Amino acid sequence: MTERQVRQVTDSRVLAAMSHPLRRRLLDVLAVYGPQPVGALAERTGQAPANISHHMKVLRDCGLVEEAPERARDKRERWWRPVSAGLRWSGRDFADDPAESAVLQAAESLNLDRQVALVREWYAAGDDEQAVWGESAFAADRWLHLTPEELAELNREILAVFDRWSARDAPDGPERRPVFVFAHGVPAQP
């Protein structure tokens, strides 16, 4: 199998499709657990299989997922897999059209909401969870004085660390589980 690349999203319709909260979650489930049948996606998200099928077709029509028929046990079972290893986009690709710019702003807001919600879930986790993972989970932030070029360099370095950790072969284990890590570097004022 060839290595999947990170997809550069330049179409606002694709950005809108992947920004829907359930579709974003479905993409996350596929990224974490690999190809899944509709039934497993429904169980993992607490949704009806018919609803999952609808959203998977929307994602397919945008080229974000594809069927994995070789995994199906029969013709009724539908398996899905992500087409790319990840997604990225640039505001420059949507700046010339006010409608596309509005889609971009909504997508970025929904994306940030999803990221913050995952962190909030961790902080709301029970004492047992906190006892096991509390010393390992982290939050880090710094105020830096950077040029745009230096921020771009920092971005490349952070993505390289993420890529190295996500590409490594790690056997499943009793204490190994999905961990969400994210970073933002934006100009701001304290």
TrEMBL record:
Alphabetized Pfam families for the sequence: HTH_20
Domain HTH arsR-type: from-to ranges: 13-108
Record bears the keyword Calcium: no
Transcription found in the keyword field: yes
Membrane-spanning ranges: none
InterPro entries in the cross-refs: ArsR-like_HTH, HTH_ArsR_DNA-bd_dom, HTH_MetalResp_TranReg, WH-like_DNA-bd_sf, WH_DNA-bd_sf
CDD domains: HTH_ARSR
Keyword annotations of the record: DNA-binding, Transcription, Transcription regulation
UniProt-recorded name of the protein: Transcriptional regulator
